[in-house]
């Protein structure tokens, strides 16, 4: 029994899971007990062809989106790794500079800037992964 003959929209209803014989093509199909025609015989061929075409387009879109999502995730991971490296390097530079007391103000400013840039980057990455 081919599933395209069934009426899935009936399944959740009371009496929606009966095995019926289609009076047109004689195929056994599952649907409401009052149905006499299977889904294939009840749906004109032109509409079935359109539905099949739309389904294949939908499958293509899904494939494309899945591939692009994977690409975005790879880029996000690379960006995150680069930011962590950059942050570590800058903090090292800041610690070396902070030995000089006169540079303390500038160091603190730079440190705040680094934190702000990192926060903004994290927010952007979080937005990407939503
Ligand atoms: Zn039929």
Please render the helix and strand layout as text.
Blueprint: E1 18-21, E2 28-31, H1 39-42, H2 45-97, H3 104-128
Antiparallel strand pairs: 1-2
Helix pairs in contact: 2-3
This protein binds zinc ion.
Can you walk me through this structure?
The protein has 130 residues and is mostly helical. The protein folds into 2 domains: 1-43, no CATH class; 70-130. It has helices at 39-42, 45-97, 104-128, and strands at 18-21, 28-31. Strands 1-2 form a two-stranded antiparallel ribbon. A hairpin with a 6-residue loop joins strand 1 and strand 2 (28-31). The protein starts with 17 loop residues before the first strand and ends with a helix. The protein binds zinc ion. The site of zinc ion has 8 residues, from helix 1.
Summary of the model, kept short:
The chain has 130 residues and is mainly alpha-helical. Helices cover 63% and strands 6% of the residues.
């Amino acid at each position: 029994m081919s599933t395209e003959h069934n009426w899935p929209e009936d399944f959740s209803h009371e009496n929606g899971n009966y095995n019926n014989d289609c009076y047109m093509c004689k195929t056994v199909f599952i649907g409401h007990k009052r149905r006499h025609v299977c889904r294939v015989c009840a749906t004109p061929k032109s509409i079935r062809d359109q539905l099949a075409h739309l389904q294949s387009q939908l499958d293509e879109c899904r494939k494309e989106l899945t591939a692009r999502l994977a690409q975005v995730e790879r880029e996000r991971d690379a960006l995150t790794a680069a930011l962590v490296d950059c942050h570590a390097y800058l903090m090292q530079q800041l610690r070396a500079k902070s030995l000089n007391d006169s540079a303390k103000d500038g160091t603190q400013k730079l440190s705040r800037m680094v934190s702000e840039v990192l926060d903004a980057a994290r927010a952007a990455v979080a937005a990407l992964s939503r």
